[in-house]
Design brief:
Oligomer: single chain
Distance between the termini: 25 Å
Strand content: 15-25%
Number of helices: 34
Helix content: 25-40%
Largest sheet: 7 strands, mixed, barrel
Shape: globular
Strand order of the largest sheet: 26-29-30-31-34-33-32
Number of strands: 34
């Protein structure tokens, strides 16, 4: 590595001497005003300084970023990250791709063992556990057994990877949620490596295959979610290429008032930032209010960066960071290094340092104005103050669907369905809460809201209240530490008394693994076509995600999750109406059982202990007896089973090096989509319907419907996933009037069929395909299958008004061209219907952000001609597109290098 600017310095601590690259040296030499840069930009700058090699990272790259301005323009940043983190839904296909790359190298006579993560990678298995059993002490054991039963093939692949791949670790099932394990254990804040005889210290940084990787930003660690495709490239030693972002400075002041929680704060922040518009930007929090926030609250805010649209929400390292490292049992040597290094390198937050920083934009929030809130019923940015929740829900019942309502006629609002059970009967209606789930990394990592939920449960039980019998309640802690401190506080039995038993350690309800509703509840919902509700302490509530029977989904704090389980309905004013009545008929209000801040703080001080963290994480990679008993496959090449319905060798590398970029001609439109189409709509997620193409494929392979499992669990099988792409039950193809779900029209015949079936008919004819969409195409989770499935269906380009950052780059990573309407134009203004035949011209001499010509020929022979922006934002992305994707580019480079070495 080079050190053109001589920024390498030495640092002495109690644990030894370290080398480090100091960005502040550039200011000392008069080359840049580093002290005026946001902290997040300084961390990126350090990476460039440390990795300067004159090829991937040059002097010009360093100076361009060091001279970052609030309006940065187009600064290309070849960012080298310290590590990669994966979860199993996106991690399994990553390991499948690595195995397929090994096969591709072997077919060409190379050494397959050359394919290994160059950058350390950790995979946490947390997305596979489903809430089948609930409400009993046996729920956890039953759900874990089912998890292993359903996912055995996937887990065998991961165990093979753990043994065959170097620099790759697996955290087995039943440990915790990936982002909480990262926050509490894996993240180091400052890392070290030996280089040229020197121990080098540098900031922890990462990309992850889950959009909520941003949670660790609360710890001062630079990182965000990317698709599995990009993550694999980083694992294989490629820089992560990005444009230097604008940085929004978000000033916090004041303190949270009594009754408000970290969840209420993050829902408020999400609403503010979505309205402001922060897609593609960093948000950096500063001001006196930051010092008032415990690190768990910061992590809660950082976690939901995807929901407010930012690349990340960053909290620089400060005293609270050091306190949290000690609280979670990190070694004192590490804490001392973090303090010494960040202070020496200008990365430690102080009020004096904050005053000098220039941000691109400014926002401000007085924490004292935060009030109890929910978000929903369909999007996380749609905050609803608790006092208005009843009115808002009733309003949404009759609101038109296009305005995110449910479009019910007035005469249907009072509909009820009687449910009879052996122990009694009850009525379900619109607004009945059928799922109440304490789940997801956002909140289960935060002791204040978890202990708060336990305290509220205790007071509710003592007042004689109980959850309603139609509520499926669940508790999915983010790590075993949470269970330990709930037990130590004496509060877990009260949660269990309200049927909030531990159901597993994983994301569960928040990613659609809520499991089936009880049969009689599901039947009643179907019979009455009821708009029933879920209340969950998660970060995602998109339509169709949580449960196919539940149409209204609300995000809320764990305390409010318990409260709504007690109430059993959304059409209640929890501020002014009683939750229920005690045995003597006295009304009990939410305020009567709401724990005070002091009670919560006392519980935290009484129960949280570093020894809890040390104990639970001491054997984090070993797993339980089930994991240890799995017979791990061995060998440098994975033994593909052609009969497997979970793991198949994907076709991505079959035509390696043979792609020829040409203009797209004679293309047809497969789907026309509206605004805010999410990766949940695009990528296969949730249950696999029997009558769907994926269900029919599994039946043809002898799989029984009860063994279908979820799409997420079958991400290692491209045959299932391509059949499930654009198959969401709530997606709306605007080419089909009044039709909801994954359907398309085959042209010119006009026949309507499943998207997959139509796409395969086009493919058989050799017809390239397009998708036309509106604003914010691809919002939501960083699902690489949203791009992989798009590619496998034969879609050559997407034409949208705007893109969410991750999905756009994933399309590029699969060799699919993202096109963007020019400002002021869209499908409506141009008169595009999707029935035209398209040509996209000018692709043979692509350069970054090139305007290309589009010709749409109508059936009557007339033409619509316009230009669209090719969203290949950097020269490297142009190369990725020309080679057919990121992994193809990496693999071709490795083969050329091996050939050159003889």
């Amino acid at each position: 590595m080079k050190d053109s600017f001589q920024t390498l310095k030495t640092l002495s601590t109690a644990s030894g001497a370290y080398g480090y690259h100091d960005p502040q040296e550039l200011e000392e030499k008069g080359l840049a005003e580093v002290s005026r840069l946001p902290f997040s930009i300084r961390v990126m700058l350090e990476s460039l300084l440390r990795n300067e090699d004159g090829y991937q990272v040059t002097q010009e790259d360093i100076l361009a970023l060091a001279r970052w301005q609030p309006d940065p323009g187009e600064i290309n940043v070849p960012l080298k990250l310290a590590r990669v983190i994966l979860q199993d839904f996106t991690g399994v296909p990553a390991v499948v791709d690595l195995a397929a790359m090994r096969d591709a190298v072997a077919r060409r006579g190379g050494d397959p063992e050359r394919i290994n993560p160059v950058v350390p990678a950790d995979l946490v298995i947390d997305h596979s556990v489903q809430v089948d059993a609930f409400g009993t002490v046996y729920a956890f054991f039953y759900n874990v057994e089912k998890e292993y039963e359903r996912n055995r093939e996937r887990y065998l692949l991961l165990k093979w990877g753990q043994g065959a791949l170097r620099n790759f670790r697996v955290v087995p099932p039943g440990t915790g949620i990936v982002h909480q394990v990262n926050l509490e254990y894996l993240a180091q804040v400052v890392m070290t490596e030996r280089r040229d005889g020197l121990t080098l210290a540098f900031p922890d940084s990462l990309v992850g295959t889950d959009s909520h990787t941003t949670m660790v930003n609360g710890l001062g660690v630079l990182g965000w979610g990317v698709g599995g495709i990009e993550a694999e490239a980083v694992m294989l030693g490629q820089p992560y290429y990005m444009l230097a972002p604008k940085v929004v400075g978000f000033k916090l002041h004041g303190e949270l008032p009594e009754g408000a929680t970290a969840t209420d704060l993050v829902l408020t922040v999400t609403e503010i930032l979505r309205k402001h518009g922060v897609v593609g930007k960093f948000v950096e929090f500063y001001g006196p209010g930051v010092a008032k926030l415990p690190l768990a609250d910061r992590a809660t805010i950082a976690n939901m960066a995807p929901e407010y649209g930012a690349t990340m929400g960053f909290f620089p390292v400060d005293e609270e960071t050091l306190n949290y490292l000690r609280l979670t049992g990190r070694p004192e040597e590490l804490v001392a290094l973090v303090e010494a290094y960040t202070k020496a390198g200008g990365l430690f937050r102080t009020p004096e340092a904050e005053e000098k920083i220039r941000y691109s934009e400014h926002l401000e929030l007085d924490l004292s104005t935060v009030e109890p809130s929910l978000a929903g019923p369909k999007r996380p940015q749609d905050r609803v103050p608790l006092k208005e929740a009843k009115r808002s829900f009733l309003l949404h019942l009759t609101k038109p669907v296009k305005e995110r309502g449910f479009g019910l006629p007035e005469d249907q609002l009072g509909k009820k369905v009687l449910v009879k059970r052996q122990d009694g009967e009850f009525e379900l209606g619109h607004g009945s809460v059928v799922i109440a789930a304490i789940t997801s990394c956002t909140n289960t990592s935060n002791p204040s809201v978890m202990l708060g939920a336990g305290l509220l449960a205790k007071k509710a039980v003592e007042a004689g209240l109980d959850t309603k019998p139609w509520v499926k309640s669940s508790l999915a802690p983010g790590s075993k530490v949470v269970t330990q401190y709930l037990e130590a506080s004496g509060l877990l039995p009260f949660l269990e008394a309200l049927r909030f038993h531990v159901v597993g350690y994983g994301c569960t309800t928040c990613i659609g693994n809520s499991g089936p509703l009880p049969e009689d509840i599901a039947k009643a919902v179907e019979e009455g076509d009821l708009v029933v509700a879920a209340v969950l302490s998660g970060n995602r509530n998109f339509e169709g995600r949580i449960n196919p029977h539940v149409r209204a989904n609300y995000l809320a704090s764990p305390m409010l999750v318990v409260a709504y389980a007690l109430a059993g309905r959304m059409d209640i004013d929890l501020v002014n109406e009683p939750l229920g009545y005690d045995p003597n008929g006295k009304p009990i209000y939410l305020k009567d059982i709401w724990p005070s801040m002091r009670e919560i703080q006392e519980a935290i001080q009484r129960t949280l202990d570093p020894e809890l963290f040390k104990k639970e994480y001491s054997k984090v990679f070993e797993g339980d007896e089930r994991w240890q008993a799995l017979p791990a496959p061995t060998g440098e090449l994975y033994g593909w089973d052609p009969e497997s319905t979970y793991i198949q060798n994907p076709p991505f590398f079959e035509d390696l090096g043979q792609r020829k970029v040409e203009d797209i001609r004679g293309a047809r439109v497969l789907l026309v989509l509206g605004d805010s189409v999410t990766t949940d709509h695009i990528s296969p997620a949730g249950a696999i319907p029997v009558k769907s193409p994926a269900g029919q494929y599994l039946l043809s392979k002898g799989v029984k419907p009860e063994d279908f499992n979820s799409y997420g669990s079958r991400r290692g099988n491209h045959e299932v996933m391509m059949r499930g792409t654009f198959a969401n039950i709530r997606i709306k193809n605007l080419m089909l009037d009044g039709v909801e779900g994954g359907y398309a029209k085959k042209l010119p015949e006009g026949e309507v069929d499943f998207v997959y079936n139509v796409a395969m008919r086009y493919k058989a004819e050799g017809t390239p395909l397009l998708v036309i969409a509106g604003k914010e195409y691809g919002t939501g989770s960083s699902r690489d299958w949203a791009a992989k499935g798009t590619y496998l269906l034969g879609i050559k380009a997407v034409l949208a008004e705007s893109y969410e950052r991750i999905h756009r780059s994933n399309l590029v990573g699969m060799g699919v061209l993202p096109l963007e309407f020019l400002p002021g134009q869209n499908r409506e203004t141009l008169g595009l219907t999707g029935y035209e035949v398209y040509e996209i011209l000018g692709l043979t001499d692509l350069h970054p952000r090139k305007p290309v010509d589009v010709v749409a020929r109508r059936e009557d022979g007339s033409e619509i001609r316009f230009q669209a922006l090719a969203r290949l934002d950097t020269p490297v992305e142009v190369d990725y597109y020309k080679n057919g994707g990121i992994l193809q580019t990496v693999l071709l480079g490795m083969l050329r290098e091996a050939k050159a070495q003889g």
